[in-house]
Amino acid sequence: MSVGTRAHRPRTRIQREKRELILEAALEVFSAHGFRGSTIDQIAEAAGMSKPNLLYYFRRKEDIFTTLIHRLMETWLAPLHELDNVGDPMTELRGYIRRKLEMARDYPRESRLFANEILQGAPRIMLLLEGELKALVDEKAEVIRGWMRDGKIARCDPRHLIFSIWATTQHYADFDVQVRAVLGPDRGGDGRFEDAARFLEQLYLEGLRP
User: Fold this and answer.
1) CATH number corresponding to 66-208
2) Three-state SS across 162-181?
3) Which residue, of 13, 75, 161, 176, has the fewest CB within 10 Å?
4) What does the alpha-carbon distance between residue 34 and residue 16 come to, in Å, rounded to a whole number?
5) 66 neighbors 4 (Cβ within 8 angstroms)
6) Region 162-184 average pLDDT
7) What residues contact 93, with CB distance under 8 A and at least 6 apart?
8) What is the mean predicted confidence (pLDDT) over 130-149?
9) Does the structure show a pLDDT above 90 at 206?
């Protein structure tokens, strides 16, 4: 059962729809105002329901936020899970860069939600960062080290390689207003993500060739 719910029985279709409505409204509110700047009243208003009705589904603001963050992390970490030591390193890294840029394009609110939490010191997700995320990065760092030992890519610090891919791809979500303003109307449309993908592929793949 998800955090903060009252029901112990399987949810009805209407209950599932109401929860999704609340989560969608909360994502909009949290991504705009951060956790501290958001209130249950704001989320209820955005969801078009009364505060008591919302509290039937989630007891606290923290429960809504935690549900969103865990859903976000599951989505965001999927491409890193797919990084495979069996495949060709350049193909694997190209695919990872592309999938991360697609997420920057398709999930900008989720990216801002995560960034706000990190800027506050990650008080609600530190255990997740130190546990599940660290374990996954450690695992994929070993995959990258294996490619280095086999002479398939140039030597580098695998964790900082992963960090830098996160930074360069998520920039296009967290700083999208800046990116579009600087690129201007001719290059600031949807094609900016394809332009970014080609550049980042060149930057990383050429830099990592042995």
Assistant:
1) 1.10.357.10
2) HHHHHHHHHHHHHCHHHHHH
3) 13
4) 25
5) yes
6) 95
7) 83, 204, 205, 208
8) 96
9) yes
Please determine whether the domains at 13-64 and 66-208 fall in the same fold group of CATH.
no
Q: Where are the domains of the chain?
A: 13-64, 66-208
As a whole number of Å, the CA-based R_g of the chain is: 20
pLDDT of residue 11: 73
Name the token pair of 121.
């010191």
Amino acid identity, position 128: L
Query: How far is Cα 139 from Cα 85, in angstroms, rounded to an integer?
Result: 11
For residues 150 and 89, give the distance between their C-alpha atoms in angstroms, rounded to a whole number.
11
Q: Is the pLDDT higher at 116 or at 21?
A: 21
Give, in order, the Cα–Cα distances in Å from 53 to each of 14, 24, 155: 13, 16, 56
Model's pTM, two decimal places?
Answer: 0.85
Q: What six digits make up the tokens of 7? A: 């029901």
**111 vs 41, 140, 145, 150, 208, CA distance in Å?**
23, 22, 28, 35, 27
Please tell me the CATH superfamily of domain 13-64, with its number. Homeodomain-like (1.10.10.60)
Asked whether the predicted pLDDT for residue 5 surpasses 90, the reply is no
